Amino acid sequence: MSLPEALCLSTLDEIAKRGSLTEITGADGGPFKVLSSVMGPDPVGSVRIFSGDTIAKVVYVGIVVPQIGLDSHMVFAFMPDGSPIPHFTLDSVGAGGYMAFHLDLIQRADAGTHMVYNDWAHTPLTETYKAALELDGLSKAELDPRQLTVMSSWMLAHRASEEAFAALDPIVGGYLDHWFSLVEGEVSDTDLAARDARNRGLLFSPDVDKVWAQISRLITEPVAESIRAQLVNNELPA
Hints:
It is a single chain. By secondary structure, the chain is of the alpha+beta class. The protein has a single domain, classed as oxygen-dependent coproporphyrinogen oxidase. 36% of the residues lie in helices and 27% in strands. It has 9 helices and 9 strands. The chain has helices at 3-18, 115-121, 126-133, 145-148, 162-166, 169-183, 193-203, 211-219, 221-231, and strands at residues 22-24, 33-37, 40-51, 57-65, 70-78, 87-95, 98-106, 138-140, 156-160. Strands 1, 2, 3, 4, 5, 6, 7, 8 and 9 form a 9-stranded antiparallel β-sheet that branches. Helix 1 (3-18) packs parallel to helix 6 (169-183) and helix 8 (211-219) packs across helix 9 (221-231). The longest helix has 16 residues, at 3-18. The protein is globular, with a radius of gyration of 17 Å.
């Protein structure tokens, strides 16, 4: 198992176990969706979906295409629509001879006018965030400024050497532990559902994140759109 796959799947397993989640499987009892590609007849990955009483929806997408050197894995853990608790996300990738990752707790309020919210939801991540930046072998990923507006200031998005990537476990663990402290703790009464719906739509918009165009070319646009449909809201498939 590659480093990107191992990091993402171990994180997914921890979320599913700690959150007491149930997997929504396909008709054969396997992953919710098996992905194929224009590259050939063999499956190239899968979509897995989980749900629970506290965590509304978790979506994992893995795509591995050796012919083009792609080894991509992502997990998004979404809280209920009206909750102020950030969504957790980890994206771990091997592509074109390099590795990269994206780690964040996606904010549910506008940072500039919600400092108390920041100090509850994100400020405790600062020490772990700074520890990550001190790792040798990281270089900051080039993201469009417009795309950055739907992420938090504590987001980590970097290319990484193999040595740096192998050292990410405690960083991801630190973000995940803090997230669960919010999930398992007391939540203030805040109506953020409408704001979150707009932000989530933008987060996974092909107009904002150009990676969707690449995914569409690889697994076809209808399949890419079916994956996006699982990410933009908490509706669970039948």
